[in-house]
Amino acid sequence: MGNRVFHYTEMRVEGELLDRLSTILCDSGLEVVSGAFTGNWDRAIHSGAPDWPTRFPSCYHMVFEMCSQQMERYSAENWNNEPTAVMFSRQDEYAKRAEEAWRTYKGNGLWDHLASFAYGDPKQFAELQTADMIAHETFQCLREGLEGGWAWNKWPLVKNLLERDRPMHGAIKPKSNS
User: What are 101-134's pLDDT values in tens digits?
Assistant: First the structure.
């Protein structure tokens, strides 16, 4: 029997489910690692380094590298270089390029603490469904917060993680002033 596929909108309507999920997450050893870009991608990609359009054919690829580099760094800084097995939600349109980046970094002796890289189907892994929900809330919080408000209290998973002092490691590429 497979995992029940659940969606954020369903759980948001059934507030008790989100509260129960947030309690489980807060009591676990969860460490959230995230990356985001909130600016004008077309302008940023052409005003960055000359190799950026090739290196980052989409914003996904930039955030993929940001998250992978953060996991590598946090393994060294916080977890005594503990090897990390990485699984991302399957994104067919981005997978080939992300796998190429993975092989290039590993082949150049980088990302030593990232032991493996795989894609999984959120329908088969409740962990990926949950990660998608945390990513959705984090995006909403950043978007709303960057527009002048404080949004964390509106989003139950992120709110409970922060209130219980669960680590949320992240980076954001802020909007450019130019």
Answer: 999 999 999 999 899 989 998 888 888 888 888 8
pTM: 0.75
Please tell me whether residue 160 adopts helix, strand or coil conformation. Answer: helix
| Nearest to 158, CA basis, from 130, 134, 176 | 134
Summarize pLDDT for 51-69 with one digit per residue, the tens.
Answer: 888 888 888 898 888 888 8
Strands 84-89 and 32-37: unpaired
* Tokens at 100, concatenated: 């190429």
**Could you tell me where the DSSP H helices lie in the chain?**
8-13, 15-27, 41-47, 52-55, 59-78, 92-107, 126-146, 156-163
For the chain, how many residues are written?
A: 178
